[in-house]
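Narrative of activities, Objective 1.

The group set out to show that a structural description can be obtained from nothing but a protein's sequence at a throughput compatible with the screening campaign. Below is one input-output pair from the validation batch, recorded exactly as produced.
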Amino acid sequence: GTSAIKVVQLKKEYGKIVLQTYGEVATGPYADKQSGEIPNLSADQLVQAVQDVIKESNVNTTNATFSIQASASLLFVLDLPDLSDRELEKVVPTEARKYIPVPINEVSLDWFPVPKQEYVDNPERKSGREVLVVAIRKETISSYNDLIHQAGLSSQVLEVEVFSSIRSTFHHELQPVVLVDFGASSTRVAVVEYGVVKVFHTINRGSHYLSQSLATALDIPFEDAEKIKKTSGMNKMSNQEAGEVINTAVNYIFSEINSVLLEYE
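Output recorded for this entry:
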């Protein structure tokens, strides 16, 4: 993440997943900033932070899976004619160019044909295929691979974080569900239908924005604002002025979430 790095060690025992250890380290102090702030770490600082959280959490495996930040990826759904899988291989990269703001040869592209559902309530639903497309800059993948190598780890899997969140949070919901992931630098919103991401949107405001708003409005250091945010939060009874500031900031985020939902509907 932008303000912290988290690690979890899991093991399969008798067919069940067991949590062995977990840990978290704030990235701010590595750039002489406060915990909760968003630093711009160098590659060496990032490697050091990863090694530290692994050591302090007593992780004893080098086999790792890394989540790729949503800000480094692009997710969208293509509405295509009813094509075969072989035809999709030719059509998807061409159609995806319309959504990707960089040259197509600079990204790693993957896609997943959305399984067709029997829509009893709408028998006239148009024919065709929906394809979920994920685009990640090759530069990002290269930097992750460098980090993995320098940290002394091995990894066969890089996964955009929203897919991990869906698997760990949902079961087999039959109705559309909205997944809201509040991060430090941004808030990620995904509308998930039958386990498939149908809409994905990033709001460029998160918990760091709340603390920064508090620090500015109350004219206090960021460190104090971070503490007030965690202890008082949106509770105006505890701290009316802080509560009003946080509520205003949060209301903006939720208005953006509502816009995403309206667009989906």
